[in-house]
Design brief:
heterodimer, A: 377 residues, alpha/beta, five-stranded parallel beta sheet, four-stranded parallel beta sheet, 16% strand, globular, B: 11 helices
Chain lengths: 377, 395
Amino acid sequence: MKYIDEFRDPKLAASLLADIHARMPDRPPDNPLKLMEVCGGHTHAIHRAGLPSLLPDSLELVHGPGCPVCVTPTGRIDDAVVLASEEKSILCTFGDAARAPGSKGSLLDAKATGADVRVVYSPLDALALAETHPDREVVFFAVGFETTAPAVAATIVRARRQGIPNFSVLSNHVLVVPGLKAILARPGSKLEGFIGPGHVSCTIGSEPYRFIPEEHGLPIVISGFEPLDLLQALLMLLDQLTQGRCEVENQYQRAVQPHGNPTAKAIISQVFRARPHFAWRGLGPVPGGGLRLRDEFAAFDAEERFSLPGKSVPDPKACRCGEVLVGAKKPWECGAFATRCTPENPLGACMVSSEGACAASYAYEHRRQVSWEKATG
Amino acid sequence: MMTDESLHHPKDPSGHIENPKKPDFPRVAALQQKQQRSEKPNQPRASSRFRATHVTMAHGAGGRATAALVKEVFLDAYGGRHLNRLEDAAILPLGRSSSLDSSLGASHLAFSCDSFVVTPPCFPGGSLGRLAVCGTVNDLAMAGAIPSWLAISWVIEEGTPIQTLRTVAHDIATAATEADIEIVTGDTKVVERGAADGVLLTTAGVGICPAGRELGAERIQPGDKLLLSGSMGDHGMAVMLARGDLAINADIRSDCAPLGKLAAGLLTAAPNTRWMRDPTRGGVAMLCHELAAAAEHSVLLREQQLPVRPAVRAACELLGIDPLHVANEGKLLAVVPPAETEDALAALRSSPLGKDAVLIGEISPHLEPIVLLETPFGGTRLLDIPVGNPLPRIC
C-alpha cells in the first residue's frame, strides 16, 4: 500500500534496530532506561509491530496516558449513561468510547437495556441525526485530545450557524500538555525521555513541549505512527541522551509544524475553554487538563442543558494505573491485572481501550510475565 | 487445563528452549485461580467469570464474550458429550445396521445449524439467502462431511414485501445448486411488525462422513502446517462498507461461497489432514485461538504470509481494524501434516475458491494454548482475541 509500506520496510527496520542496540547506553538490568510513549496510538503501533521483543532488554517503553478513552473519568461515563437512558435522547459517540466502563456499566451495556446509543464516525454524523430527528435530543459524547477537538468544535459552530436546537455535546476533551505536567509532577517518576504524540502535535505543534527540556531536563522526540517512525524516534532519543543533549525534536516532520495547525487551534479556542481541573482516570484531578464549551456556546453544552449527576467516582483501590502511567509499575505488577481487571471487565483506566497500557500488555505481550513471576514465586 | 505444577515442569517433550527473549508459554496462574472459585450449589449459577447481566452485541460477535455466554449459560444448562466439543457440526455415529452405512460407505453423520441476520440483506458478493446456505454447508464440509440435506426455517416480519422473499428464495436456490445440497424440509413463521428485523433465516444441515475421513484436534501434532485458502476479511469489510455509514467506497466483495468441493479436493490430496474450520465471526484470529485451545498447543502465524487484498487492507487501515479479526464466509483454514503440505496447497490452488491459498503458520511444540504472531520485522507478539464487534478506534 502506497505511503504505508514505505514506513514498514523490514530491511530499514533491521538497520535502525541494529543502530539502537549499538547506541544503547550500558544499564544494569535492575535499572532499565525508561522512555514513555505518550500516545495510545503509539502504544498500539509498538505492540502490533512486536517491537518490545526486538528492543534491548535494558530499554523499557512506558505506556503513557495518551488514550483519551482510558482517561475519561468514571463519573463522566455515568453521566453519559444517564443521558442515554432518557427516552427522548440519542447518545452518539466514537467506537471504543462506547465500551468504557462506568460504575453502572458502559454505554454498550446501556444500549443493551434499551438506551439509544449510536456509534458514529464523525461528530457531523451526530449533527445530521439531530436534523433528521427533530423530536429527539441528540447528545454527542465527545472524547479525545487536541486531535478530535477541532472537528467537534467545527460541528458545534455549524450547529449554531444552522440553528439546530436539539444538538448538544458532553465534552470530555483533554489536553496533552497538562497531562504531561501532571505525570512529571508525580512522585516516583523514573522517566528519562518522551516519545511525543504525533496527531496531537499536528494540531498544537512542537513548541508547547519546550517545558520538558527546559524545566525538567528531559528530551522529547515527536514521532509518527509507523514502525520505522517509532524506531527512528527512539534512536533520536538515544542520541540526545548519549550526547548529553536535551531538546524538543520532531521526527514526524511530514505532518507536524513547530506551531501546529493555526486553523485547528483557532477553532478550539473559539469554542472551548480550559477547565480549572479535570479528573483523569488513573491520574486524578489535572489542573487545566480538560476542555468545556465557552459560555457563548452554552446552548450546545450538555452540562448546561441537562441536569446530570456529575458525581466523581474514585478509581478502585486495587487499581495501580497511576503508578503504571508514570513507569513506577509494569501492568502485570498490579494485583488486579488479568484477575479482576481484564479487557472484558476493565477495572482501571489502562485496561479500557485497546490502546491502554494494560490492555495492550494483556493482548500482545506481557501476559506471560504474570504467570512466570507468580509461578516462580 | 494444565496445573500450576506444569509451569515448573513443562510437558514439552523436546525440552527445546528457543531464544530466551521469545515467550516460554507458561500458563496464566491468575486466570486459573479465578476459574477455580467455588460457586453456590443448587441454583442457576451466576458464574464468577460471566458477570454480564444483559446481552450486549458483543455476545453475538464470536469473540470472548460469545464463548463465555455459550459456556456459562448454555453448556451450564444442557451441555453433553457431543455439544461440549463446541464443534461447528456434531459428528454422530450411525448404527451398525444402517442402510446408509452399507449403501454410501458412510461411518458417521454430520449435523449442524446456523441462524442468519444480516444488515443489509444484499451486499456485494452475497446476500442473506446465499449466506444461509453457505454457512451451514461450510460447517458440514469443515467436519469432513459431504453436505447432503438442508432444512430452512423462515421468521418473517409482518409487512415484508413478497418480492423480498422471492429474492431471498432465489439466492437460496442458486447457492444450494452450487453447493450440490438438497433442501428437504422447512418451516415458516410470521411475527408482528417490530418483533423481527425483516427476515431471519435458520438453516440446519446433514452431511455424510465417508469412512476413513476423520478430522479432529486430537490428531494435531507439533510441526503440522496451517493453510489458509485465500485472502482475509473480504466478507466482513464488504458488509461493513455496504451499511453505508462509513462513507468509504471501495471495490470489496464478500467471499461468501460453499466450500464442500474445495474441502473434498483437499481431503483427497492430503488424506491425513488433521483439522479444518472456516474463519467466520472473529476472523482468523478467533479461529486460531480456538485451534490452540483444541489442540492444546501454541499456534505460530507469520504476519508476512497472511493474505489480505489491497482494498480490504486499506479499509482496515483507515478504520484501525485488524483484518485478522474480520469475518470470512468462503475461506477455510486447514491443519495438515508437513509431508502433505505441498499436495494440499496444490489441491486448494487448483480450485477457483482456493487459488490464493498459502501456508500461514504452524503448530508449535509448546503446550500453552496461545497464538503467537511473527511480525515482518522479526518481532513476536501475542495475537489478541477480538472482544465484541470490531469498532473503529478513536486515534
